[in-house]
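Forum: Protein Structure Q&A
Topic: Joint prediction for protein chains with partners

I've read a bunch of threads here and the consensus seems to be that you should model interacting components together rather than docking separate models afterwards. I'd like to see that in practice. Below is the full input, 380 residues plus whatever partners are listed. Could one of the regulars post the assembled result?
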Amino acid sequence: MKKINNSAGLLLSALLLAGMFVVCGCVDDPVGKDYYNDLDKIKGGQKPTPPVLDSLSLEPLTGDGYPVVVTFSSDGNDGPEGPDGAFDPDSGTNNNLSYFFYGSTTDPASFGDASGYYDELYYIGYVTDAEAGVDPKDVTIYIHSGFSGEIWFWITSWDGGRESDHSNVESVTIP
Amino acid sequence: MAINNKILIFCVTCVSIVYILCNANLVWAENPVNSGDKGELEELYQEKDESMYAPAIIALDILPGAGHFYTGHYYYGIVFATLKIAGAYSIYYYWRYWDYRRSLYRSARDANRKLDPDHDLLFDDPDGGYKTVEEMKHEYDRAAHYFTLAVIGNVVVYAASALFTWMHVREINEKSIPVFDIQYSSATFNDTCEHRCSVSFTIRM
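Posted by a regular:
Agreed with the consensus. Here's the joint model:
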């Protein structure tokens, strides 16, 4: 009786071990090196083009601070050689774009690393394109009255997944 | 899954089954219970608890539950066999998962560097949602932690199983060790002195 039980136990062990190898077939295989080298696997697909920062104008001091009116163009279809402003290649328009505003008290040209342009440290806020097709657009940013000196501004567009390169950089001097 | 991987699993499974069956046959053949003349004496002989060599039984216990089955503790055998099978599978699974998450992280990292090095891109995670390269790295690290925990869990299970096997073997060996008793007594009566010495030998059959 004992030899039967010994053999049955070992056979059971073998079957359990065999079962393990069968179940092991459910694990995912590693992906290839170029798996993500595909825009379909990236949120936002293709990168939108940046808007054009037309001008900065400093308004008289108010109770909220110094108003700086940022005028920018987001219509990407009016360029003589194709889109030259904010434009989402995936949707073919700029209606779905939002615009991120950045500001810095140091010249971004001195950042060294281009990724500094998109650092949260310099992020001010965003606006959505509520007036699609209306260009140029004005956005007012209030600077604290206690500040004096030069401030640099730049803008990017965002299609819900990807952020464009930064626009041209403009500066304004707060007295 | 690649076809080569399936073939590998199939081969490993076959080799494992053959190995374990051969091992089972060897264990059965080497057991004194299973050798020798058949007959009435064999029935009596089987009732005796055989002395076992603990290291060999503990080594046998590397196979899931085998040490417990061999010593006749079938419930322990089933429990530890289940734990070891699940443990071995968890190691394999989390090793593959770790390898999988590493491949996703490296692919995302390289793609981000190549496509847009200045921005953190959001990559479609097969497990759901979108993740940046940094978040992919966190998932990769988490998978490494799971793998480490699986290894630690298996070590604990194997240690517990070996400990119980050793205790069972010791229990069996204690029953099979012959017991020697030597008794000596001396009594002095009024005019005589009596010395009595006896030796007894007990073996459990």
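The radius of gyration of chain B is 30 Å.
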